[in-house]
Design goal:
Layout: H1 5-18, H2 25-29, H3 32-43, H4 49-59, E1 74-79, H5 86-96, E2 97-106, H6 124-142, E3 146-151, E4 157-162
Parallel strand pairs: 1-2
Antiparallel strand pairs: 2-4, 3-4
């Protein structure tokens, strides 16, 4: 699905109305140095020790390795990210999870929009990502490497167990 400038403007206006705004530091601070300064002087000194440890460990351990070093090493992965890339994440994550391991995907019911007619009234950002979520759900059903269970909790969570 292509996104044009008009759609971006509409999505941004809707995000501002709903209180969901993009939190990328470039859009707010315009400076990597300022962003780093804020992290080092305000954020990191106040973070609990377990969060600091987790941040430092994950910074040194990229999940998407290119050489296959970590294939089949993870027991569980949870994804709550940009819905238009869920299929791309799945393609890479399924190899990283052990046979018998789980991948959880959040928001797979996408505000219930996946079960209503395409012309039903819905917010523009819901409508925009609806097709991505539908396509992703169909891709999971067709993937022979996993078995799935969709949980109607919150906005929908789909658990995928790797079977081969």
């Amino acid at each position: 699905m292509a996104i044009n400038e008009e759609t971006k403007t509409e999505l941004n206006n809707e995000e501002q109305e709903s209180g969901h705004q993009e939190s990328g530091h470039k859009s707010l601070l315009q400076s990597d140095a300022l962003y780093q300064y804020i992290l080092e002087t305000s954020v990191y000194p106040r973070e609990p020790a377990p969060m600091k440890e987790l941040r430092e460990i994950t910074a040194k351990h990229p999940i998407f390795d290119e050489n296959g070093k970590y294939h089949g090493t993870y027991d569980f992965v949870f994804v709550d990210a940009d819905k238009d890339n869920y299929i791309n994440y799945h393609k890479r994550l399924v190899d990283l999870v052990k046979v018998g391991g789980l991948i959880g995907y959040d928001n797979t019911l996408w505000n219930g929009s996946v079960v209503v007619p395409p012309n039903a009234p819905m917010a523009k950002y819901i409508r925009y990502y609806r097709d991505y979520v539908l396509e992703f759900n169909k891709a999971l059903v067709a993937d022979p490497r996993i078995e799935i269970c969709m949980l109607p909790v919150g906005d929908g969570i789909t658990l995928c167990r790797r079977i081969n």
